[in-house]
Design a protein that fits this description.
This protein is of the alpha/beta class. The protein contains twelve helices and eleven strands. Helix 2 packs across helix 10.
Length: 303
């Protein structure tokens, strides 16, 4: 009986030891797999227009960068402007197409973050003030002071071209910030195309959008310029850019950000047009957006 009991105990101990050994192997394998996982260049972009086809639009750039750099590249959609900055701060996004304000915010939050490329048109960006035809307003070289009594909408309150710079020009021309300038509460549509459509539909009498969105919507027939009228064009300012996270040099090796910049600049017009509606890409650096940063601080949009 004693021998039988001893054998049973020995057998059970062997089974337990085998099981523990197997678990240890599985844990080791799992850890090794995680550590050796292929690094990924994760691209995102502020959702300044509808995001339903954003990943599709960026796919040509994803393919181009993967081919040029020989690394895995993927695009992930941002839920809103704030999300694009927060996920850049955590390193979940490592290359983001930002507007001027969101780019300044992201770089201020991540030491070593760098603006590396912008669209050919971006050093000379501008906003369009627009109005529904029912207002009777026409295009003018003078700032349209008459909008102060209209039902007005901006885009996102984190947008450079849809809020911050228009606010700057409102103050420059009237001496007042939007909340004091307009006699009715202003609204925020959340995106440039939504602003244009809401003004065209008469939901708002006037608004402001970036010129690229307005021009493209007129060109493809989504917007009738006789109904949704362009009434004033702002002076030019620097705006959109690709900002790279310093984490990229840790993931892919020192000097990778410079290689990434070169790869973006080598993208064809077709790729630039598809991804960000630009005719091409040119170099950018943080100092290009010093003016945006100064205006943002003056307006209380950056602390």
């Amino acid at each position: 009986m004693k021998t039988s009991t001893f054998l049973k105990r020995t057998a059970i101990a062997a089974v337990v030891a085998t099981a523990l050994s197997q678990c240890s192997k599985e844990e080791t394998t799992s850890t090794t797999t995680d550590e050796s996982a292929e690094p990924v260049l994760v691209i995102s972009a502020i959702p300044d227009t509808k995001t339903t086809n954003q990943a599709e639009k960026f796919q040509p750039l994803v393919d181009h960068l993967a081919k040029e750099l020989g690394v895995k590249v993927e695009f992930q959609t941002s839920t809103d402007y704030t999300d694009s900055v927060e996920k850049f701060k955590t390193g979940d996004f490592t290359l983001v197409w930002y507007g001027g304000l969101t780019g300044v915010r992201a770089r201020a939050a991540v030491e070593g973050a760098t603006a590396i490329a912008q669209g050919t048109e971006d050093p000379y960006y501008k906003s369009y003030f627009i109005a529904n035809a029912s207002t009777g307003l026409e295009k003018s070289d003078e700032f349209p002071m008459a909008i102060k009594d209209l039902k007005f909408t901006f885009g996102s309150n984190s947008s450079t071209s849809g809020f911050m710079m228009p606010s700057h020009f409102i103050k420059e021309n009237s001496g007042k910030m939007p909340d004091d300038f307009f006699t009715q509460p202003v609204a925020y549509s959340g995106a440039h195309d939504k602003t244009a459509l809401q003004v065209a539909q008469g939901n708002f009498q006037a608004g402001v959008v970036n010129y690229g969105t307005y021009d493209s919507m007129v060109a493809d027939g989504r917007l009738d310029p006789e109904v949704c009228r362009l009434i004033w064009v702002t002076p030019p300012y620097a705006d959109y850019n690709f900002t790279a996270h310093p984490k990229l040099n840790e993931q892919f090796g020192e000097g990778f950000v410079e290689k990434l910049q070169a790869a973006i600049l080598s993208a064809s017009e077709e790729v630039a047009k598809s991804s960000v509606n630009r005719s091409g890409f040119v170099k950018a650096e943080n100092s290009d957006y010093q003016g945006i940063e100064e205006v943002a601080r003056a307006l209380g949009e950056l602390r």
